[in-house]
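=== RUN LOG ===
request id: a7f3
mode: sequence -> structure
chains: 1
length: 618
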Amino acid sequence: MAESVRKTLASLDQGQRRRHHHRDEEGGETAAEATKLIRAAEFITVAELANLLEVRPQEVITTCMGLGLMATMNKRLDKDSIQTIADEFGFEVEFVSEYAEEVETETEEVAGERLTSRPPVVTVMGHVDHGKTSLLDYIRKTNVIAGEAGGITQHIGAYEVKVAGGKDITFLDTPGHEAFTAMRARGAQVTDLVVLVVAADDRVMPQTIEAIDHAKAAGVPIIVAINKIDLPGARPDLVKQELAARGVVVEEFGGKTVAVEVSAKKGINVDKLLEMIVLESDLLDLKADPTRRAKGAVLEARVEQGRGIVASVLVDSGTLRIGDAFVAGQHWGRVRAMFDERGHTVKSAGPSTPVEVLGWNGTPGAGDIFTAFDGEREARDLANKRQALHREHEFRAATKIRLTDFRARMAQGETSELKLIIKGDVDGSVEALSESLAKLSTSEVQVRVIRQAVGQISESDVLLAAASDAIIVGFHTRPDPKARELAEREKVEIRFYDIIYKAVEEVRLALEGLLKPELKDVVTGSAEARQVFKLSKAGTVAGCMVTSGTIPRTGKVRLLRAGVVEWTGRIAALKRFKDDVREVASGFECGITLEGRDDIKVGDVIEAFNIEELARTL
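=== RESULT ===
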């Protein structure tokens, strides 16, 4: 594998030199100067770096010793070490983001005549019960490509339709906007258009707003489908006004967003909606090269009895054929069989075509970039290399942006925009906080609120922050346990405030690089009140189930109701059956009495926490 790695990286370097040598013949840089640039992946070994530098490994080890770094031939080096060692030998380093990703980039330089138009990929999003499924069902039954009506299996997550004029459209049937952004966070920008479904007899609901935020963050055009116009209480104009208040201004009101009033049940104006999708895609001028090796993204993957690992793949460019070797993330395989959305066997799949692929050695993740290769050995070596890099990244995972070191990162040219997601208990506070923070923008840095909403901090907020490199600000509200775990896993920072001016002051100091060491709120456990007992001697006792972590007898706790902090204090008594205990672990029941708080209701959450002071790191 090391030999394959060396050859691949060496080919990258040689390709770079050829391009520089070509510029030399035209009177640009000299060939000698061009050889001073190497391209490498992070966490390569000392031996691999020596090959790139064209020196003996012992020389690199000696240099490492001189820099105070203990090294062996097989030691993996981080980005800073590689840069420093290369400088010692007079080389500049250009890092590739994922191993051998740049190999694929070079093959994408195709002649213009090889590019052909491809169908648009459309994701349908919107609030629950606003008619997304009904609209998709109607389109599928009336416009499906030749095949038995309604015979499409939905688990593929995507299907093709043919509309009037012979144009094709690929629809993604995703579980929701969380999945949409989770895929974008992993680098898979699979959607060309978003159809936002809003019910004409309802208002713009929280999930509608979230869908707008996610589509805007992805930079994807939006077409609004105002559904249920056949119902007596339909008020499409009111929906358009509320959308305008959220920054989605339709053409009727002087904006640029196309809006179509439809009825999915009766099929009113559905043809017009499809026509608008085709028109919008024509403006985007979507093209791909069907002759190159296939490249795309994994939509979803599962294990089926009798079939093994089955992954739904959307081909973005090139053509995928039976027998092709491929890599997706850390997994590889060879295409043993492919099926379309109706379960029929297909031998090849071109651009914007969704297919089920069999032949994996492991289960890929949604959003993993899928790439075909000429040989199985090349694909296997690349997957093994990525697995090794992934293990290194797990130990040396880079954190997301933090408020404490924002100024330092800005000074290094890493960022010039502070993105925030604001969640609060009431709309007035959220609006006031958003406006106050937005006013902190300067000529050097822009403060941009990419989402503001009322309610508990959810997994959707964390996913959006991870995809957009944003910080979440909670005002009188907390994250639910799943959102907190996801934030820790994705390294997303969540800051909590009770006073608006304190939040504004901290952000201002962060922009100035003057932020003091932070006091971090560490949640040690949470319990949910299942029953409430009123006792004459003990007062109110909450019968609780510990849902995560541990609840200690000492320490601080807070009472949450619908995600909003109602009270903060201490536990007066903690019991298991009739015995006093020091702590109760996750999965066990207990009785909790709070000091000075008798108003406990079923469904309330009691959260134990500690306050830790963290020194600022630069």
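=== NOTES ===
The first strand starts at residue 37 and ends at 41.
Residues 271 and 557 are 57 Å apart (CA to CA).
=== END ===
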